[in-house]
Write a structure and sequence with these properties.
The chain has 12 helices and no strands. It is an all-alpha fold. It is globular and about 55 Å long.
């Protein structure tokens, strides 16, 4: 791969973030009780340094479900919804398909937008069952109502170990602060920027996305964004 200024900067950022926070252990799995001591918030299910997940189709479905539930909300709310589904013994495509839609809405209520997300989840359950264990293409995932770019890439990267770089709001804020993009840059432009300048490596993509989220929670969650962020200073020094 050609060594571009963008490649140097992206790898420089990655190594700084990894040194600062260490492996993040994404995506969380409820059955795994581990925690990440460097992570903002007291959440279970993370497995830093253990890349053996997902270990089953059950894990794959749980990850996809979490990716849908986390749309427009914080993970703490998703965790509550997942725990309620687990308590109701309905944390599987088969069980959710058997649920009345109103019951599903109440179980996922903590994650917000529950009317919309309940229908998205029902759609995804049919989609997941139709796969019969196969890995979906990105285009096929995007054809499922309720699955957009970020959700599709999250599912592919974390549930199916496919090298698809995930772009989220936090990533855009950090990249804009570092001069890597315009404020209104499109999802696909940023995804292409990363995938053309980083080696296609699932573990790298997983850790990079998770590290950007962790860093952004500390410096980019409230306006004005980036106050006291040490990363731009580090990157500027590296490029001089």
């Amino acid at each position: 791969m050609k060594i571009t200024p963008e490649r140097k900067q992206l790898y420089g950022m990655y190594h700084w973030l990894m040194d600062a926070y260490g492996p993040q252990g994404w995506w969380p799995i409820l059955s795994h009780q581990g925690k990440n001591p460097t992570m903002t918030g007291d959440f279970k299910g993370y497995h830093p340094g253990d890349y053996s997940y997902p270990q089953s189709s059950t894990h794959q479905f749980e990850i996809a479900l979490g990716a849908i539930l986390t749309q427009n909300t914080a993970w703490r709310n998703v965790e509550k919804a997942l725990l309620q589904l687990q308590s109701a013994r309905s944390l599987s495509a088969k069980k959710i398909k058997q649920l009345d839609i109103n019951t599903l809405k109440q179980l996922i209520r903590p994650a917000g937008y529950y009317n919309q997300k309940a229908q998205y989840i029902k759609n995804y359950c049919d989609f997941f069952s139709s796969l019969k264990g196969s890995v979906p293409t990105r285009a096929l995932l995007l054809s499922c109502k309720g699955i957009g770019n970020e959700t599709a890439d999250s599912i592919l990267l974390y549930a199916y170990s496919q090298p698809e770089f995930v772009i989220d709001t936090y990533t855009k804020r950090i990249f804009f602060a570092l001069g890597l993009c315009k404020q209104d840059e499109s999802y696909m432009t940023l995804k292409t920027l990363c995938e053309q300048n980083l080696d296609k490596d699932v573990q790298l993509y997983q850790e990079y996305h998770a590290l950007l989220v962790e860093h952004a929670k500390r410096y980019y969650s409230k306006k004005p964004y980036g106050v006291d962020d040490p990363l731009p200073v580090h990157c500027k020094k590296k490029l001089l």
